[in-house]
Amino acid sequence: MRIRCWGSRGSFPACGAEFVRYGGDTSCLEVESDKGDLVILDAGTGLKAFGDHFAATARKKAVHLVCTHAHLDHIMGFPFFSPIFNEHTTLNVYGCPCAADSLETAIRKLMRTPYFPVDFCALPSEIIFHEVTPAPPPFKIGTLTLTPIRLNHPNGGCGYRIEERGKALVFITDNELEYGKPGFDAEYYETYCADADILIHDAEYTDDEYKQFQSWGHSKYTDVIKLAVAAKVKRLGLFHINARRTDDQMDAIVDDAKKIVAQSGTAIECFGLGTGFEITI
Questions:
Q1: Is 95 helix (H, G, I), strand (E, B) or coil?
Q2: pLDDT averaged per 10 residues, the chain (length 281)
Q3: Nearest-CA neighbor of 80 among 47, 38, 123, 127?
């Protein structure tokens, strides 16, 4: 399984010299199975760059877009995804219902007057929507098995555990871990993350920042480390990087995260996930 990041910022894109190393695009990951099945996680602004790359390589593959939820930073790249303007494209889109709309309805609303000049109904590609819920059974895309994971986030959503040939990627963004809070179901997330080869998790806030943004649906990086340690994951990618956080500030968080991991007595490889990151598991 090959994983490549096309965008890891949260809430809105970042631009400027201070945001080069980690990139400025919002949530988008490419996952390719050993057999070549292609899954895209989230349709943030990183989807545009992936779409241009995909079109340039002229690959004749079906594309599967799997969304965590329909907040704007996670779907705003969809109207700029070049394959949807190609009549030969078949795009399967997977996602859970939003607070009031289905994912399909949310995307259709995004691509209509006055928000976008090309109406969704005018697209020449074939787009097929599939509804998923955070409950068994898992679903398959080629040789990949995807298990939805309920998000603790306003309006809901799903993270995903993706498995192939005994290897596991867990992708959980826009999720508020609340270690230490009565009633927080730590066991739920630890079970789904157990022994993952790589956990990519929302880590937007420092402990001090979190005091101001409790209940906004995002995690302290210190809580993400607790989850990784408890679940015995092998690698931890800090994701949903605050759009105002500079590269140097993110480096400082990563350095502190590595110290905390070392103090836990585990050998978890910890890093900040930036645009261009690529790994095969």
A1: strand
A2: 98 96 98 96 98 82 92 97 93 84 92 96 96 88 97 94 98 96 94 98 98 96 98 98 98 98 96 98 96
A3: 47
How many Å apart are CA 176 and CA 138, to the nearest integer? 23
Query: DSSP secondary-structure letter at 147?
Result: E
Residue whose pair of structure tokens reads 């949310």 in the numeric block: 106
* Residue ranges of domains in the chain: 2-280
Is 88 within 8 Å of 55 (Cβ atoms)? Answer: no
The whole-angstrom separation of Cα 106 and Cα 70 is 7
Q: Locate 195 and state its tokens.
A: 């022994």
Q: pLDDT by residue (tens digit) across 69-108?
A: 999 999 999 999 999 999 999 999 999 877 667 899 999 9
Coil, helix or strand for 6?
Answer: strand
Measuring CA to CA, how many Å separate 50 from each of 29, 65, 124, 143, 239? Answer: 9, 12, 19, 22, 18
CB distance 170 to 159 below 8 Å: yes
The secondary element (H helix, E strand) that includes residue 7 is strand 2-7
- 221-231 vs 186-193: helix crossing angle, rounded to 10: 60
Length of the chain: 281
Identify the bridge partners of residue 66 per DSSP, sorted by sequence position: 41, 94
Query: Which class does domain 2-280 fall in?
Result: alpha beta
Beta bridge partners of 130: 94
- Of the candidates 172, 168, 146, 178, the one whose C-alpha atom is nearest the C-alpha of residue 159 is 172
pTM, rounded to two decimals: 0.96
Token readout for 138 is 């898992």
> CA triplet 53, 57, 61: central angle to 5 degrees?
100
